[in-house]
């Protein structure tokens, strides 16, 4: 079973708060970004890699690649799994990824969404 130490929803994926605070808090040594768009975008990947401290590994995988490969993770890998949306996590869970709890971070306001916390806005599709 993969050693997922933290699962987080964050529309910005990896940024300063995730790269420093959450990685440190969770004791993660690998950040796994599960996002179809970013998995194919080296520019976004490079920007996100710059935020992480030396020694923290990062992978940018599609949702399907996470589903297909997460169970091959070594025990020594302490994984911070980050997705942009609740729907992405639902896809992963339905695909067999063992997610027990989700830390909800930045879900920005948009038309049709209701703000339920300072940095979290949701609509019916998110709940």
UniProtKB/TrEMBL annotation:
<protein>
    <submittedName>
        <fullName>PTS N-acetylgalactosamine transporter subunit IIB</fullName>
    </submittedName>
</protein>
<keyword id="KW-0808">Transferase</keyword>
<keyword id="KW-0418">Kinase</keyword>
<keyword id="KW-0598">Phosphotransferase system</keyword>
<keyword id="KW-0813">Transport</keyword>
<feature type="modified residue" description="Phosphohistidine; by EIIA">
    <location>
        <position position="15"/>
    </location>
</feature>
<dbReference type="GO" id="GO:0009401">
    <property type="term" value="P:phosphoenolpyruvate-dependent sugar phosphotransferase system"/>
</dbReference>
<dbReference type="InterPro" id="IPR036667">
    <property type="entry name" value="PTS_IIB_sorbose-sp_sf"/>
</dbReference>
<dbReference type="GO" id="GO:0005737">
    <property type="term" value="C:cytoplasm"/>
</dbReference>
<feature type="active site" description="Pros-phosphohistidine intermediate; for EIIB activity">
    <location>
        <position position="15"/>
    </location>
</feature>
<dbReference type="GO" id="GO:0008982">
    <property type="term" value="F:protein-N(PI)-phosphohistidine-sugar phosphotransferase activity"/>
</dbReference>
<keyword id="KW-0762">Sugar transport</keyword>
<dbReference type="GO" id="GO:0016301">
    <property type="term" value="F:kinase activity"/>
</dbReference>
<dbReference type="InterPro" id="IPR018455">
    <property type="entry name" value="PTS_IIB_sorbose-sp_subgr"/>
</dbReference>
<dbReference type="Pfam" id="PF03830">
    <property type="entry name" value="PTSIIB_sorb"/>
</dbReference>
<keyword id="KW-0963">Cytoplasm</keyword>
<dbReference type="InterPro" id="IPR004720">
    <property type="entry name" value="PTS_IIB_sorbose-sp"/>
</dbReference>
<feature type="domain" description="PTS EIIB type-4">
    <location>
        <begin position="1"/>
        <end position="127"/>
    </location>
</feature>
């Amino acid at each position: 079973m993969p050693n997922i130490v933290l699962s987080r929803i964050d529309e910005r994926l990896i940024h300063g708060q995730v790269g420093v605070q959450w990685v440190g808090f969770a004791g993660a040594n690998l950040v796994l970004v599960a996002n179809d768009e970013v998995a194919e975008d080296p520019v976004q990947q490079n920007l996100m890699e710059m935020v992480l401290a030396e020694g923290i590994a990062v992978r940018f995988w599609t949702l399907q690649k996470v589903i297909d490969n997460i169970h091959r993770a070594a025990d020594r890998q302490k994984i911070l799994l980050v997705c942009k949306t609740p729907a992405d996590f639902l896809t992963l869970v339905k695909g067999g990824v063992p997610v027990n709890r989700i830390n909800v971070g930045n879900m920005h306001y948009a038309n049709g969404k209701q703000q339920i916390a300072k940095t979290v806005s949701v609509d019916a599709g998110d709940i």
